[in-house]
Amino acid sequence: MKARRNESSKKPRCGGAAAAWLLVPLLVLIVLKTDSLPHLARLRETIVTQVSVETVSEHELRSKVSSSGLEREKIWQQQQQLVEAAKFKDAERLPKTTDSVAEAPPSPASSDEIASHGVDGIKDLKDEKNIVAMNGEVDGSLRNSDVATPRSSKLSCNFSSERMDVCAMDGDIRVHGKSATVYVVAASNDSYRPENGTVTIRPYSRKWEISTTMQMVREVRITTDDTAPQQCTVTHSVPAVLFSTGGYSYNFFHTMTDLVIPLFNTAREYDGHVQLLVTDFDRTTIFKLRHFLGKLSDFPVIDLDADDAVRCFPAVRVGIESHKELGIIPALSRKGYTMKDFQDFLQSAYSLKRAWATPANRSSGQRPRLLMMQRRKSRALTNEEDALAAARDVGFEVVVAGPEVVKNMAQFAEVVNSCDVMVGVHGAGLTNLVFLPRSATVVQIVPWGEMKWACWSAFRDPLPDMGLRYVEYEVTADETTLKDVYPRDHAVFTNPLAIHNEGFGKMWSIFLEGQNVTIDIGRFTGVMRQIYQFVTIS
Ligand SMILES: *[C@@H]1O[C@H](CO)[C@@H](O)[C@H](O)[C@H]1NC(C)=O
Ligand SMILES: *[C@@H]1O[C@H](CO)[C@@H](O)[C@H](O)[C@H]1NC(C)=O
Ligand SMILES: *[C@@H]1O[C@H](CO)[C@@H](O)[C@H](O)[C@H]1NC(C)=O
Ligand SMILES: *[C@@H]1O[C@H](CO)[C@@H](O)[C@H](O)[C@H]1NC(C)=O
């Protein structure tokens, strides 16, 4: 298909207001970046120290990868060390390889071309083969096939989604990470033929944020111009999926909606037999998602940006498939995946025990578990202790999770899965609802200021597909700390939409960053009682 790219004319699905809303995390980045730096540095230190003590062979690792729990985590870490170690080795070896590749005749090699290089040319070719054979990495039959079946690869792209561009290719596909180039060798006549033989994709699923998020995402070139294809230095027997962690993956909502779900959509069908290739490699994100990634792929993730190898694959997908916020549209999924499939996958990746939340039996003294997602800097509950006491009095067993607890994703996934009800003021922390058992209840506290529409698209609309129940608690003018800052006749109270219209920054600083919530305990208790009745039996 020959779809033309026409990004600039595309509009975000929910109109201009939504577009503004989606910028929020960008601003959050600026705030958070300073916070996260020490953590990142520490992480880097650990990984680098571990590399030197690495002893496990890759084969051993691969055979162990199917095990679960803590052992899996350890193995994953070792895998990452191997990636690092491999990179150091490559660094020593690659210059030599590259030299000989540069002098080798272009492929497909005709006898004329070899002849024109004379005896020296043939010698160079042999030397190169020796290097390759020593490494045991290049599949000779692949290169022979260049000669035998010249038009064997296929490229197809889809640029019609407003969320992402994707290209799929199979046959003889070669990836050079350092130059972010994917070579489709000998593209067949029914392939997508980009103008000038090259098409570029930013492999992150927020395509409509062209001038913001997507600027943080490296462009990957896909070329069908194979007059001088690179020689393989590493041959993989499994397909690859290439994506970027360069967007705003430090925000957990975006990690889930831009990365985790699209990755599931794209790579799950290979049942582990898939190589993940990451550009804009963000160590923190990769480490945070290690259980998920380890379940998705049997192989260590490859950091492409510094990778000077030419990696050859039987098939490659560039870009990951995103359908909507925090959701999957089965009709758009090649394999017809649903959010239920996604939840099952998460439950298995994180060894979660409860697929369903079953009602607690009051007569036998069971208490339903309620998880309170805390926020500290903004949209915090100023009278949280009272709110928690109210929930306890109603009959809940209350579990409290602050930002520091949430950081350990695997541990926290188990905590979430053990609960029946999740309560929190609108914010990225609520994304952890993906770990709740089905039929659990989510209570979203919507801050003051006509914020409903934004809150709905993130944490209301996606819930039915996950089998979760939704309860909304909208903060009144009496419950926001904005009343200590603005008089009641101010537009903040009389016409919040006017504030939205004054610009995104203003809306953001007043309604999202500028308020805490002092909950009306009487009203809150009433809501808690209703939910309690619903999640218990006698
Ligand atoms: C391309 O993607 C769009 C939207 O994601 C989808 O509706 C369409 O069916 C896809 N086209 C092909 C040929 O797969
Ligand atoms: C294709 O190449 C021509 C000539 O080099 C150039 O003018 C044109 O802009 C190129 N088109 C694209 C889409 O890059
Ligand atoms: C709840 O517990 C009581 C007392 O243990 C028991 O008699 C009753 O059958 C239980 N109800 C259900 C629905 O299991
Ligand atoms: C909200 O509460 C936190 C924690 O007490 C405080 O640091 C912050 O300044 C408060 N923000 C507003 C807008 O009142």
From TrEMBL:
Pathway listed: Glycan metabolism
Record-annotated Glycosyltransferase 61 catalytic domain positions: 252-443
InterPro entries, per the entry: Glyco_transf_61_cat (IPR049625), Glycosyltransferase_61 (IPR007657)
Keyword Zinc: no
Localisation per UniProt entry: Golgi apparatus membrane
Topological relation to the membrane, as annotated: Single-pass type II membrane protein
Record's GO cellular component terms: Golgi membrane
Sorted UniProt keywords: Glycoprotein, Glycosyltransferase, Golgi apparatus, Transferase
Molecular function in Gene Ontology: pentosyltransferase activity
Region entry Disordered, spans: 94-116
Main location: Golgi
Stated name of the protein: Glycosyltransferase 61 catalytic domain-containing protein
Organism of derivation: Lolium multiflorum
Lineage of source species: Eukaryota, Viridiplantae, Streptophyta, Embryophyta, Tracheophyta
